[in-house]
Amino acid sequence: MTTDLGGLRRSFRDLASCRIATLLPGGAPHAATRWFVWSEDAVYVSTRRGDAVWRNVERDPRASLVIDRGRDWSELAGVRVSGGAELMDAEHPDMRAPMSAWHEKYRSMVAGEGFERLTSDVPALGFLRVVVDDVDVWDHRGSSRSAGLPSVEGGA
After folding, report:
1. Alpha-carbon distance 139 to 11, whole Å?
2. Phi, then psi, of 107 in degrees rounded to 5
3. Considering only CA atoms, which of 7, 12, 19 is closest in space to residue 105?
4. Helix (H, G, I), strand (E, B) or coil at 146
5. 144 touches 151 (CB < 8 A)
6. Closest CA to 154 of 64, 80, 72
7. Fold of the 5-141 domain
8. I need a labelling partner for 89 at 20 to 30 A (CA). Which of 49, 108, 144, 155 fits?
């Protein structure tokens, strides 16, 4: 695993969404797109309390996230982080700093009618606190240095 998680965090923190994979009851993967904030201690992924992602983590805490950018092959760069996920209510005292970061990041996206729609569509906001155990990075834009990514080993 790379030791430069701070560099990866800085490289991908501006992206609006990640894809999270969890396990369905039969063991098949379940992938969903969610909003996230990546703090120093974990990646916090927002989801509806009680939705499929939440229920999957209740049964099995293993989760994997993909955060990437680019469309064409020569633009693609991303990171996959995996680890154990902990279910957190938005109101939990340990969520104060992550919630502040989440509100700051998504404020413009939920301005005006967006906030009303969010609270209507997501009456019970929850978070998955994913502690990073494993990391994989890829960058098809040239060297990691020229793409602004920290130098890491491995890759997809």
Report:
1. 12
2. -50, -50
3. 12
4. helix
5. yes
6. 80
7. Pnp Oxidase; Chain A (2.30.110)
8. 108
Residue type, 122: V
The Cα–Cα gap between 136 and 124 comes to 32
Continuous H helices in the chain: 5-12, 52-59, 96-106, 113-121, 144-147
Please give the pLDDT value at position 1.
Answer: 45
Lowest-confidence pick of 36-50, 115-129, 139-153: 139-153
Q: Output the pTM of the full model.
A: 0.84
User: What would the two tokens of residue 5 be?
Assistant: 């998680």
Chain center to CA of 117: 22
Paired tokens of 117:
């729609």
Task: Check pLDDT > 90 for residue 27.
Answer: yes
